[in-house]
Amino acid sequence: MNYHSRKLLKLHLAPWRMATVAGLLLGGLTVVAGRAFYLQGLNTDYLQGKGDAVANRNLTLPAHRGQVTDRYGQLLAISTPVETLWARAADLRLTGAQRAHLARVLDMPERDLEKRLAHRMRGEFSVSRQLTPEQAAAVAAMGVPGLILRREFRRFYPAGEVAAHVVGFTNIDDVGQEGVERAYQNWLAGRAGERQVLRDRRGNTIRDLAPIKTAQMGGNLALALDLKIQFIAHRELAAAIAQHKAKGGSIVVLDAKTGEILALSNQPDFNPNNRRNYQPGPMRNRAVIDTFEPGSTVKPFVAAAVLERGLVHPDTVLDTPPTFKVGPKLVRDEHPHPNMTVTEVIQKSSNVGAAKLALMLSPQQHWEVLNRAGFGQLPGSGFPGETAGRLRGYASWKPVEQATMAYGYGLSVSLLQLARAYMAFANDGEVMPLSFLKREPQEIVGERVFSPTVAREVRAMMETVTQEGGTGTRTRVPGYRVAGKTGTAHKLVDGRYAPDRYLSSFVGMAPASNPRLIIAVAIDEPSDGVYYGGSVAGPVFAQVMAASLRQLGLPPDAPETATRMTLNAARPGGGA
């Protein structure tokens, strides 16, 4: 290397340039050092938060749902701990044999399992909810990385189908879907909690840190239901549906003194513990949601209306020919009697007599009585989906419509609504508010519908329905006086009354001297050739009432010989 080449390698920089570069480098290092000191010495929260975001996780702690019991503490709904299988996509490694074994453990086709595991490239996801203890143990024994078991709760219903329509059910996320489970969701659900855990870079939990929020257990719920009476009602209704080859049916048992619903059952029913084959039809609470034309069970309210205004007395004699023309329509009695007292109109269920009584009233007077009794209004039970039925305003009534309403056509009610209205006769004119929950007697304030005198007079009329010559002799209960009313109504199909489709009903109370229980029964479309309310619904009433009175320990109010059960079917009057 010559002198010339060494001279070219020499760097000739002005002194100010070197100072500038050195100053910039020193300033940058000072800024970085200052920032590092600030973050690591003065303001540690930022980096700590970033680290915690990676290592710490907040896990939800499910709240234990409250129990549902009957009035005596018998369990109707309870939550049990179960395991749910989750998978962490980043760690999941399943061989073909393991996948096949896991599918068998979870009782699902291997193809379905593959679909659930496919396209899950990030995070955690649910594989199967609410495993049985045996399934959870089998999954844990596999020891597959990336499969995680987590605790949650599953709702169980010890009474099964027996109380299903009242209690309802929850979905897989423990949210009430029907019945009191839905109506009291906020009370039963409680409040979920949170806890913080420390995880490694693979997402495995290293240790628990501190609970952030403690889970609060849901409140317990005591229903007015008496499980023993509920079981009897469910059993007798199911037997009647099978015997008469009916489409369906409902029964309601009320405590006349408190308005508590001691039993409510429908057919067809469903098992709330079987979540795989839910169908909307059987789950529908017919007694609360469905409406029907009540037929002759509405006649006592017409009698009460005319008695209340002093237009007749119980022994007033009416001319009751076989047919009675009202406008363009002929009102008929299938088993006519030429003259009947007002009491006999109820006893023999005369359509002609009921129509004549109704036409003694103005449409407004007739409407007011039905409205005060609760027709056309929500029953107020608080049950989801309860219906108000249908009662048109009186301003548009024609005479023929007023006449047909007297024997239960042209208006609609639910069975619960009808049972509630009969409390006016059981409680000397007062109607108590309905309740699916157990309540104390001192909490109840009734609403007056009729005077005590009128209520007792109509109750005495209804007592003759169950005696010889009445339409409800098969509703007798040995040792007790029974009062009630039969009903048989043609069903409306495609805008016309079907000649061979009926809804058979009976509503009654006992002991008639001082009623404690009201039972309403409706059988939809009996098809074995027997369809009168006294013959189809009446025996169900008698069996359930007899067992319920014994269950409550109520003393008899009549000689047993005077109330022996009649085996022959009743010979009902028109429309009964």
**Global morphology:** elongated
CATH topology of the largest domain: Beta-lactamase
Strand content: 15-25%
Calculate the terminal CA-CA distance, rounded to whole Å: 132 Å
Determine the fraction of residues in helical runs and give it as a percent range: 25-40%
Going by helix content, strand content and strand pairing, the class is: alpha+beta
The largest pleated sheet is described as: 5 strands, mixed
The CATH top-level class label of the largest domain: Alpha Beta
Tell me the total number of β-strands: 21
Number of domains: 2
Enumerate how many helices there are, as a single number. 22
Poorly predicted spans: 561-575
What's the CATH superfamily of the largest domain, by name? DD-peptidase/beta-lactamase superfamily
For the record, the CATH architecture of the largest domain stands as 3-Layer(aba) Sandwich
Arithmetic mean pLDDT = 86
Could you tell me the radius of gyration in angstroms? Answer: 37 Å
Question: Would you kindly provide a written description of the structure presented here, covering whatever features stand out?
Answer:
The structure is a single chain. With 576 residues, this protein is α+β, with helices and mostly antiparallel strands. Helices cover 35% and strands 23% of the residues. The chain has two domains: 59-90 and 124-222, Penicillin-binding protein 2a (Domain 2); 227-563, Beta-lactamase, CATH 3.40.710.10. It is elongated, with a radius of gyration of 37 Å. Helix 4 (96-106) crosses helix 5, helix 4 (96-106) runs antiparallel to helix 6 and helix 15 crosses helix 17.
